[in-house]
Fold each of these.
Amino acid sequence: MKTRIITALAATVLLLSGCASGAGAGDGSSPAPGSAGTTGGTGVVQFSAAASLTDVAPELTAAYAKDTGDTTPIQINLGASSKLVQQANAGERPDVLITADTEAPKALEQPDAFAAPVDLLSNSLVLAVPADSPITGVDQLPEAHAVAICAPAVPCGRAANGYLEQEGITLGTVTEEDDVRAVLTKVTAGQVDAGFVYATDAAAAGGKVKAIKLPHLAPNTYPLLVATHAPDSAQKFAQWLQGDAATQLFSAAGFSQP
């Protein structure tokens, strides 16, 4: 699944930007290579987040604009944590970065380009199966026809593979996906019998899937990283993400505190 780029602004911001001559700054287009992390010149905060934040990320940016009155456009870049780190290494460094585990940022080639990470959220991996599936436990997976799992370099894949090894479970037919939302799509479309996703993703699917808890598995911790030279607007947004208003939105989406 390709990384999706969206721009989330509060309604008042949209009205203001539509009247301004430079309204194109927040049109949702991809930033030019190397432009991320230079928002002091573009007037846009670059916010990269793991794919499991797909639903809540726009809610966060809209709530931030409403709560603070900050009209700075925030451009959201969603994708697998490993890909977000690759983009940062290629020069497209975000101002604010949230990955789906603490291992992903270790691949940053210039870790000192970000301030020390802050543990922001936690999320539990679950086994998602179609709502009418007879599967009730992870021990039945070897009997399933097909199981979707994130690629090994992706946090959800790292967690799933570690769990399967820990439990001594060998899967039959496996399909590897770019990120957790691609896994969820395979499950909801009926293309696989089961898939390893986060509890928040299973909840986002509504009644289309049922989530089976994985015993003896610690949840993933999501770190928040802020670029060392991020503009004040990005610093304020990152601080807001650690406050009560953001915590309520994260909780409503199914995330927990680390």
Amino acid sequence: MDIQFTEEQELLRSSVQRLLRDQYDFDARRKILASEEGFCRKQWRVFAELGLLAAPFSEDVGGLGGGSLSTMIIMQEFGRHLVVEPFVETIVLAGGLIEHVGTEEQKQAFIPDIIAGTKILALAWTEKGSRFDLANVTTAARRDGADYVLTGDKSAVIAAPWADYLVVSARTSGHRHDRGGVSLFVVDRRAANLHLQGFKTIDGRRAAEISLRGVRGQLLGKEGEGAPVLEACRDRAIGALCAEAVGAMSELNFATLEYSKTRKQFGTTIGSFQVLQHRMVDMFIAHQEALSLMQHLNLSLNSSEAGVSRLASGAKSKIGYAGRTIADHAVQLHGGMGMTDELNVGHYFKRISSINIQFGDPAYHLLRYAQLDTAA
């Protein structure tokens, strides 16, 4: 598949490429990761000024109306440069949920500030033992006046240490694993009785374990109908993560090809060895297949096609396996230096590994793809 971008989309892509080329090279990224916060607020504001944070949102809420295709373009370039700032967490996940199910008051309260880069949000849905199941929720919420009071624990909440607000899933009725009874809530990250333990993830980002002990939050969407809303949000997030992975794969392929032209063994460049040429051909094919499938998924998301959830699982699985193949070969062909901190190859390897387990690993989505096929 080869998407023919509109003039506006081409301008968006060239703008992101130019910005990241000039301001976000590998050394700049390493300095950001080594900083106390682990991301750059100044860079986040630059993204806002360029319109990147507004691009996916509809014009009705003050966005640019680019939808999933704008997200795809941005995330593919972010993947090439290993951008750590929380675009998926704030724009696609939390911001997307507020846009799709929030009240008009909630949209006005949060989305303009998200677009302006002055508020960062994160989605807290994972719990110990939930194993990628969006309905596996034990955190409880009870109504108390106009708000709700939440009690429970959330695990590995990416970007939570940076966030001003959290969107939290909690159970208002039913039992663990019940698809009904899950609700969503917006919680101030600095609310009383909310405790956060931050840590670094394998790819250098920041996440947190969160404890809620009687924390007040406001309902987002309809009570008890959070699971299907989260499932639709997961599909959009998978589209964005797949685009990021494809961008990372392209850089790994380029770096490996260039290295094979200069690294010598037995008096000749390793790129002249036929067995290594076969590996690099396999890497190229895996990237092209992943690129085509990623574009197909995001086109389907943009047009809200039927069956997109099954397609998202198929893409997450196929692209996950392709990314792992490319990352493994890239590290092996670079030898021991492939995992050193000074070389970008190891960083791409870690990011692809992290993407592979977000919202379900390739094996989980392969099984889900088959189950949805049987259900259809």
